[in-house]
Structures are given as C-alpha cells and as structure tokens.
Amino acid sequence: MPNRITELFDIRYPVVQGGMIWCAGWELASAVSNAGGLGVIGSGSMYPEVLRVHIKKCKQATPHPFAVNVPLLYPNIEEHMQTIVDEKVPVAFTSAGNPKAWTSFLKAHGVKVVHVVSSVKFALKAEQAGVDALVAEGFEAGGHNGREETTTLCLIPMIADAVKVPLLAAGGIGTGRAMAAVMSLGADGVQIGSRFVASEESSAHLHFKNKVVATREGDTALTLKELAPVRLIKNAFYDQLTAAYKKGTDTEELKNILGRSRAKKGMFQGDLTEGELEIGQVSGQISAIKPARQILCDIIAGYEEVMEEIRQQAHSRFCF
C-alpha cells in the first residue's frame, strides 16, 4: 500500500499506533512495527531514564522504524528530546503544545516530526513550523482532546484541503471500514490508539483492557474542558466530576478532585472505580483482546475488502 505516509516512515502499511500514556511501551510499539505499521512509544508517562530503556528494548525487538510520542507539556521535555536524538529514533510525534518549540531541533538531528492537531488553524501553524506530517484528531478520540469538538468526519477533509504535508486521521478509527472512510476524505493514513489499548502487548492493566472490551455506546464522555479536555469511561470518578459540575465547582476545585496520578491509577494499576480510564468512542466496537499483529492484519484486510467492494460497485454501475 505505498503512499506518502509509507514512504515517509519506510513502513508497509499507512497505519500508526497511538502513543497512549500507560499503554504504549516497547512491547506494543515493536509488535506494531514488526507487523508492518509504525509503532509508537508513549513517553508522556515515563521518566527520562525509563524512556531510554524502552527505546533500547524496542530497537532490540524490531529492525523496523518506530517513533516516540512526546506531549510538549511534559515537565522533562529537554531530557526526552535529547534521548530521542541520542538514540537516533527516526520519528517523533509531538502534541499538546507549540510545534515551533522543538521541530527545528529534531529535524536538525535527522528526526522526522509529526504534530497532532484538532483544527485547521493549528494544522496551518504546524505546517508553517516545518513538520513533516500531521495527525488530525477528531472529537471521538480517547485521552486528551481538542477544545473545538470537531468530529473526524468533518475535520479530515477540512485539513486535507488546507495543508500540503501528509495527513494521518485519528479519532474513532478501529476498523478497516473506518480507515477506508477517512482515506476517502483525504487522509494518507490512520493513527489508531484505543483499539491497540486492548491488545496483548499493551502495557495497560488487564482490568482496564477488560473494561474497554465491555464498554458500549454511550459509556464514554468528554469532560474537564476547563483544564484539558479528556475522554474517559464513566465510573465513580466521572460521577464525582459530574456532581461537582452540578454544584458549580470552580477550576481550582476540579484540579483538587483530579489530583495526581489518576490516569496511572486507572489504566496502569487497574483501579476501575477511582482511576481515570481514558479511551475513545470506538471502544464500543471492541469485543476482544487480540495480539497487535492480528489487530493490524484485521484492519488492513477490512480496508482492502471495502475498497474492493467499492471498485466492483463502480464497475457495475458505469460499465455496460
């Protein structure tokens, strides 16, 4: 499936695994890269020395390219960026901040840079900053989300029309049918997070993986928009936030309720009651925990099946 994304990253399929905090370690990243996609280590939940270990282990586990995702709000950002350069990681994904801050530094050291955006405005700013590609993430996505609440279906064609760099679609994509849809809208590939959370190689706690599999339509919600919008599974922690909103709680009190390490508690340690359980709306389609290779193969097979159906329909309609 050669296109601009496969050529940019030197991969077989235009499928990138999301760099989800507490879920995307070296095991998952290497498994996805070995299956023909681009695996991504999620550094947002790692201390600098931990990230270095994950990168080294990923190098040992796969001969193929992989990436590191770095939220630009991370407190040890300098150490993370230097580690990426020192370890010669080929691709860095940046998010939650100004792409101008680190794009030039990374590219000067031979690192390809991809920035995550949620609007046309920020897509143009990132392109001007010199990024090699973009991820356009719609409102359906899990974890921290854009404030604009633009859905993937609307976001992808708007950004595709506005920029020239290769474009990955994210948010609500977990099947080959969804991949075909967003690529028809102008994306060159997809970034998939939630589906890979429920993989055997994901570093998420088994309790959380099972909760994702059990999640159905309407079980997730976007909240904490005053701080940093996040989509999560409704649980006792979410109910506490809902009660606080009804009382008219201010931002400082919301920060107190959130506290520290909520995401670690929920996704990594498996506390399904008090933890923050970040996942996308596509979780309603996930019915089993599978190996990452099988997930990727299913997505590609589904994509090719849909495209073949479209070709056959077009042929029967227009050929007499």
Give a written overview of the molecule:
The chain is α/β, with parallel strands linked by helices and 320 residues long. The chain has two domains: 4-204 and 286-311, TIM Barrel (Alpha-Beta Barrel); 207-282, no CATH class. It is built from 14 helices and eleven strands. An eight-stranded parallel beta sheet has the order 1-9-8-6-5-4-3-2. Strands 7-11-10 form a three-stranded antiparallel beta sheet, with no helix packed on it. Helix 6 links the parallel strand 5 (112-117) and strand 6. The longest helix has 27 residues, at 292-318. It starts with a helix and ends with a helix. The model has no long low-confidence stretch (mean pLDDT 94).
